[in-house]
Task: structure prediction
Amino acid sequence: MLAVSTNPDMAGGLENMSEIFLLNSGSTIDEGRLAKGGSKLTEDYTEECAVCDMNPDDYLEMGSPEKVLVTSGDGKHSVAVYAYPTDAMSRGHVFMPRAIWSNVVVDPETFSTGSPLYKGSPVRIEPTEEPVQNACDLVVLLFPRRK
Amino acid sequence: MANIATVKDIICPVCGASCDDIQVELGQGEITVKNACKMGNAKFQEIVSSHRIREPQIRQNGAFRAAAWDEAINRTAEILAGARRPLLFMGSETSCEAMEVGLHLAEFLGAAVDSNSTVCHGPTAMGIQEAGRVGATAGQSKSRSDLAVYWGSNPLESMPRHMSRYAVYPRGYWTRRGRFDRTVICVDPRKSITAENADLHIQLKPNSDYELLSALLTLLHGKTPHYSVEDVTGVSIAEMQAMLKMMKECNFGAIYVGLGIASSYGKHRNAELAFNLVKELNSYTKFVIGALRGHCNVAGFNQIASYLYGFPFGLDFARGYPRYNPGEYTAVDLLREKDVDAAFILSADLVSHFPAACSEYLAQIPVACIDIAPCPTTMLSDVVLPGVIDAMECDGTFYRLDDVPVYFQPFTSSPFSFTTSNEDTMLQIFEKVKELRK
Result:
């Protein structure tokens, strides 16, 4: 785990620490329930999937933020999600349910297999006050349709 | 719901388990489902849901408007026939019959055609091509297996009935006491609920599957791996030895690999090594390996593409004959590299499940899709055709996670007058494309 930037203007510093984590995305039962039930554009889906599970010590070091900004390894894409501490995660690793929020920051490189790095993608994480977008708003914001 | 007959033995069209014991009671505007898991029940409720897409939609001046069926079919055909290099994406929650039409349509158009199987277990299929696979049907594992190894998989959340129907809890012919006759190992960087319910949890570091598999093979060969493997994998050699002892001493072991192997660094080389480990374990006991196929008929595309055109996924017909080169003709790579100029998507939500670079490009090209409910992909499409729900509203064939074909029959019919199934819709599009390409 590598601390890559701190903001000296921020009191305490840790609140704005941005660090590199390994992102593991995968199924959760309620993500599956909502996706299969055609509820991807609902607030329930946002609450279930726009989340980032972190190790409690990492979470504490980051200042116990309500939300974090997850940025892809290449720095091109970011997404704000709710942060939760859980003992299920080891230090330096985070988990996000497989959904539009995690896939915004997944490394698109497939290493000549056709399958992106859904697990083990490096991401940058920092506390944020940005709003968590629902799937509908995220599509409009990130993928504007051609004129 | 009085006087409503219960229909039994319905196949669930949600995940690769293809559970065949679902019971439904379909009333006026409501459905009662028995035996299905949370995901399955949610999908069955779609048949009466208020958000079901029930009429075609066409994007005009930046907004959707309702369209006549023929107009939507024509527009879809125009998108495909007018493209120089279209991508056809066959989703997994539909029949092999619909996928087959898609493959033939791709051949006719000289298009690229791919499916969920690529981003799911595509690397696992490549591993099979490299190493071969010692496999078994789910029934064999249920009757015989006394050791289940979930490697990079979390079935309690991704395939909720796998443990209870096929692998851990059921009483098999040689495993009469069910769970008490079986041991469970879980290999996962996360303490998932499957890991919590396992007898041994090997908590490896992410992206270290290849190194752990290599170390297990080294131990199996009677050597001790270099101590640095403990730091690389986060697993002590003593833990590896304990795991290998359990594997060698079982009567019938079954490894169920998940995307932890296929989606992390190493990809098809992880899978190749896992298949080689299983081959060598057969010098000591009976051991098999199979993929936990998360989506319903994701195995089906691999099967029919292989027997129709020789390759399991990521086929390119640009030269009039099928070519296969993962990383070049596969959907994620084609979209990321902006190598296609139109897309047709059947029963899949690429915008949600592909990396952002792919979705950004999808927003720039003409897209037509077939789906049953609004989702990010329908939001970006130019044409949205209503989908028919396989196994509920039409018959057809799925391949289960163990590559066993399952014929499914519906308990009701298509709610639409204009199409009887997704296969029917695909055939209508194909006919129109042929007219346009005359």
Q: What stands out?
A: The longest strand of chain B covers residues 252-257.
